[in-house]
Every structure is written in structure tokens, then in C-alpha cells.
Amino acid sequence: MKILTAKQLANADKVTLEKQDITSEELMERAATLVFNEIHNRLQGAPIPIKIFCGIGNNGGDGLVIARHLIQHGYHVTVFVVNYSDKRSDDFLANYDKLKEVTRDWPQLIKKTDDFPEINTGDFVIDAMFGIGLNRPIKGWLADLVELINKSQAFILAIDMPSGLFSDKIPGNDAAVIKANFTLSFQAPKLVFFLPETMDYVGDLQILDIGLDREFLSNIQSKVYLVGQEEALSLYKPRKANSHKGDYGHALIVGGSYGKIGSVLLTATSALKTGSGLCSLYIPKCGYHALQTGLPEAMVLTDEGEELLSSFPADFTSDVVCFGMGAGTANETVEALRELLENTNSPMVIDADGLNILSKNRDLLNLLPKNSVLTPHPGELKRLIGDWADDFDKLEKVRDFSRKYGLTIVVKGAHSFTIDREETYINNSGNPGMATAGSGDVLSGVIASLIGQGYEPVSAAVLGVFLHGSAGDIAASKIGYESVLAGDIAKNIGKAIRDLFQEPVHDSEKN
Ligand SMILES: NC(=O)C1=CN([C@@H]2O[C@H](COP(=O)(O)OP(=O)(O)OC[C@H]3O[C@@H](n4cnc5c(N)ncnc54)[C@H](O)[C@@H]3O)[C@@H](O)[C@H]2O)[C@H](O)CC1
Ligand SMILES: [K+]
């Protein structure tokens, strides 16, 4: 699904009005009625106090339409007009008049702190103050109102966007932003819904298709995509009936050191669980018995080093090499990586200590085979590209790095971002249970396996990140977040692949 900017959405809006020959008021009615339907489906007429805070633009207009429908269906609604300006939009005004037809309770005007209402636990608050039209941070008494709402412990539903969030920048540390429990957003997800600095304001997310012009939307240029089941399925290559193990790639996994041999076991297990035809491991001697016993399906080659990697078998060929898990950063191991890079042309996946070695030995970056995949977590990323001012700056810097070295970068996080030159893919599977030791080792095994099976590295990264998250979701659904171990993620990769073909769960319902 494409992620669109406020400007692109405003254009889609304009084209839709022309092509469908409708007024903007009619489009507002359509959009806000969809919101009403969602609320009504969930509340089923429950007599709870609903407090709707409307701005004076079109987001406020949406709030007024929602209010009208709720009142007509017998809900207990109080409408507040948050009068931060006198420049009310036409569609706001039209719906202000229409509200008169259904209630005698005139909206209460809020112009200053003294006008603030009481908000109680158990209230249902609808935030329709600002949407994509926010053009400066919320300050002054308006910020106090946002704080009052946030502190109230009421359930908060944000319309289109939590008020205070911009679609294309970070609000800043002292800016006020609504912290919603749920966000119903129109037509397309916004980038800020998925960034570490802003995702916590969104709560659960659902995207409503408000019927903006299909042709315009499919032609619109966006280089940022949200990846859910549908997108992952479109990348998947089915196995052929008439095939043998030689068709599914030979993955070589290089890593491990004394006390960290388990990481290689996790990576190798997940590579085989993702379907590699063959999997070889290159490790220090001390791990030989553990790996042969722990994973009889893998072939094990040992380095001369007892406890550390110090070389690379020069005559070894494979379809993909995965380097770094548990490898440490000793000088011998740096040289082993150099030897590997000088002797391999197959695409690589570099993780963990492999990334730390690259950060400290930057000349090695130029030796990486083009289109290799790097999978840093934020700490490793910082060492690799330097610090960033905010999440938008981070994305720019990762894009520069990806372009400069011709690499695909998977920035791991609650929503992992796969960045390949100009394109950004935001993953929408996974859960907090996956924040556990070895989870990243499993991810690099999935991606390496897919590359070995002939997927383009960027497709392998995007599909691999989705499958990894989905396997984590399956594991968590069985045993709960806290108990998910990296091994449980690896165990469920097969089910995650099968689930690609299940009736789709709407990605928009996940955040
Ligand atoms: N195509 C769609 O997606 C549809 C969107 N709809 C809704 O319309 C809003 C956007 O409405 P707009 O009037 O452009 O902007 P806002 O309501 O978000 O803001 C109003 C107004 O406020 C001024 N302003 C901005 N920042 C501040 C500030 N910090 N303090 C005070 N005043 C500020 C500025 O002048 C804005 O114009 C969209 O989100 C949807 O909810 C349609 O209803 C359906 C189609
Ligand atoms: K809002």
C-alpha cells in the first residue's frame, strides 16, 4: 500500500471532486459517514458520554458530520468547537448549520483555558481538531487542551491523524500531540504513523477507503510503501513440483565465537526453515559439536581458530553468504571478513558484529558485493551512518548510504524499514514479543535463504522482514509476548509462509 503525503492526498481530493462530479461537502459526508459506521459498529448504541472536539477546518467539519450521525442514532454527544481561529472552512460552516437540524444543544465554544470541559475516565473522546492541514506546532491554550485530553484517561479516537502530528515532519519535543488509542485515517497511511518518534501517538490504526479516484491513486508516484500480507504475497515465488534441493540455493553462514555459537544455530535453522536447499556453516572449532548435534541438516566447516573466526575457505562457493552473528570484532575476524569480501561475488547479508566491523573498518564497505543486505538495529545503524537529528533525517541519511554503496539496508525496529536507494518499504507485521535475544539472527537467516533461492536481494529483504514478523505473531498468539524466544520465531516461519495464502487480515488494522 502506498504511503502518501498531505499534498498528494489534497491533490487526490481535488481530482476526485472533478472526476466524480461531487462537492467537497459531499466527499466530507462520505468520509465522515464511514467513520460514524465504524464507531456505531463498535459501540452498538452504548449510552456512554461522547465528547467531540472539532477544529474549524475540514478535520473539524468531519467531527461535525460524525456528531450529527451519532446524535441521530441516539448517542449522548457533546460537541466542542475549538476556536483557535475565526477562519472557519466552508464545509465546516455547512455542517455547523446542519447540526442545528438534529439538536438543540448548541456546540460549546472553547477559546481559552477557562472554557475547558471536564473529561472523565470512561468518556469517549473524538479528536477532530487538526488533520493534514496542521502547519505549525500546537502551542498556548490549545496545547493545554491537548494535555487535558491526554491526561484524562478517556478513550481517544483520532480522526485522520492525531492532532499535532504533521504528515511530513516530527512535531518537536515541546509540541503538543494527541495520544490516541485508535486512529481512523482516510485513504492512505501517513509515514509518521510508523516512525519510532511518532508511532506511539497513533494507537491502533485503521485506514478507511473513502473512494478517492482509483486511477489517480494508482498513478501517483510514491516511493514509500507499507508492506502487509498482500504485498508480501506478491513477492512470493512458489516452489515447483518438479524440483530438487539444488533449485533452492546453498546458503553459507559465517559467524560465531566462544560463547556465541548459538547465534549461528539460530540463523542456520531459520535459513533451512525458510527453504534453503543446502546450508553450510563456517565457524570457529569450538562450535563444531554443538552445531552438528543441534542442526544435523546443516554442514559444518571449521576455521583454524579455536574460539574466533580468523580466515575464510577461499575455494568455497555458495549462492549467498551471511556474515556476522556472534562473530565478535577481534582483529583476526576483521581480516577473515576482508578475505571473505575479496573472494566472494555472491550477494551477502551482513548483521550484528559484521556491521560493527564495517563501521570501524570503512574501507571494507567498498568491497561489499553490490546489492548486499545490511540489517542494523538502531545502535548498529548509528555506528554505521552517524547520528541523526530526527527520524526523517535518519531516513535521508540511510538513503544516501544505500545509494553511495549500492546496498539494501533493513533498519530494524517495531516497524522495520527496508531502504533500497530511493525506495522505502515499511513492515507491518511483528509484535513486542520479538524484542528478544537472537531475533535478529533469525531475520538474517530468512533473508539469506531467500536470496539463495533466487529472490532479488531487496525482495528477499522485504519479504523476509514480513515473514519474520508474521512468524513472531504466530508464536506470540500461541505463547504470549513474554515467552517468545528467537527459536520460536524460526519454528513458525513455515506457518508464516502458509499464512500468506490465508484470507487477508487488513493490514490497516495493525500498527
Ligand atoms: N481527501 C481527504 O483525505 C479528505 C480530508 N478531509 C478532512 O480534511 C482534513 C484537512 O482539512 P484542512 O481544513 O485542510 O485542515 P485542518 O482541519 O487539519 O486544519 C485547519 C486549519 O487550521 C490552521 N492551522 C494549522 N495549524 C495550526 C495551529 N498549530 N494552530 C492554529 N491553527 C492552525 C490552518 O489554517 C488549517 O487550514 C483532513 O485531515 C480530513 O480530516 C475531508 O473531510 C474528506 C476528504
Ligand atoms: K484529528
Automatic annotation (TrEMBL):
K(+) binds at N59, D127, S163. The keyword Cell cycle does not apply. Coiled coil: none annotated. It catalyses: (6S)-NADHX + ADP = AMP + phosphate + NADH + H(+); (6S)-NADPHX + ADP = AMP + phosphate + NADPH + H(+); (6R)-NADPHX = (6S)-NADPHX; (6R)-NADHX = (6S)-NADHX. Its cofactor is K(+); Mg(2+). GO terms for biological process: metabolite repair; nicotinamide nucleotide metabolic process. Binds 1 potassium ion per subunit. PROSITE patterns: YJEF_C_2, YJEF_C_3, YJEF_N. One of its GO terms (molecular function) is ADP-dependent NAD(P)H-hydrate dehydratase activity. Residues 228-500 form the YjeF C-terminal domain. (6S)-NADPHX binds at residues 58-62, 131-137, 160, 326, 377, 441. Its EC number is 4.2.1.136, 5.1.99.6. AMP binds at K412, G413, A414, H415, S416, G440. Pfam families: Carb_kinase, YjeF_N. Homotetramer. Belongs to the NnrD/CARKD family. PANTHER family: ATP-DEPENDENT (S)-NAD(P)H-HYDRATE DEHYDRATASE, ATP-DEPENDENT (S)-NAD(P)H-HYDRATE DEHYDRATASE FAMILY MEMBER. This is Bifunctional NAD(P)H-hydrate repair enzyme. It comes from Christiangramia sabulilitoris.
